[in-house]
Structures are given as C-alpha cells and as structure tokens.
Amino acid sequence: MGKIKIKIKDNLATEQADQFRKFITSPAIIQLSIGVIVGGSLTDLIKSIISLASNIFYFCSIVLVSKHHTADIYLVLNPLRSVFENVLTLCAIAACVFFFVKLVNKFLVKEASEAFGYNAQLEETKQLLKAQEATNELLRQSLHMQSEMLKSQQKEQEKN
Prior knowledge:
This protein is mainly α. The chain has four helices and no strands. The chain is 79% helix and 0% strand.
C-alpha cells in the first residue's frame, strides 16, 4: 500500500499568529469592543442619573406637599453617591480602553495603516502639504534668482 503524505507548511503557526494579530488589531473589532465596554458603563451612569432625578423629585414632593413629612435626605444622597461612582467608573474604563488601544497599536501593529485611529486621508493630506511646502520653497528660490538676474541685467544695461 502507498503511504499518504500530508504536507504541512513550516510557517503555519506564524501564519495563524499573523492572522490573529490582524484580527485583533482590525478597527472593526476594536470599535466593537470599545462600544460594548464603554456603552455598558454609560448605561449604568444614565440609570443612576435617572434614579437620582426620581429620588430628588420624590424628596421634594414629600417636603412640599406633606405637613408632617418623614423625608430622609438619604433619598437624595444615596443616588448621588451612585452617580459619582458611575462617573468615576466610566472615566476609569475609558482610560483603560484608551491605554489598551495605545498598547495594541504599539506592540501588535506592524504597519501604520493597520493602527486603530489611522486616517489615510489625513496622512495623504500631510504628505501633500509637505510637497506643497517644498514646491513653495523652490518657487521662492526661483523668484530670488530671477530677481538677482534682472538686477544684474539692469546693471549691465546701465554700463552700456
């Protein structure tokens, strides 16, 4: 019987690692992750703000309508504490996501065009501006040389 030979690429692991790196650094995956993570935290913040507003309304209605109210200031302070905690949580999560994206861009991205936040139009505009500056400098030099040539021609004509 004949033997069956299976060819395995030598660089299969490297190829898979490179594909995984491209997947992890793809802008769509990073945007989705940021949306889910920050969105969840923002949802908690909005819920706590609504709870605070509701409790403030309830506290004010008890104080204003009831002659012998038993309203407790903690009806307002507890939701206020929750809002404060959620604002800090949102800021901390946003900072962690920001530094994680910077870390991914620094260590996993091989080309600038793969980096999250890369703007091809902006980079092209920067290159065009540099080229325009170089052209403007050449035009200045050309005008200066033409001016010098005209001065020298005028001096020669005055001598004659």
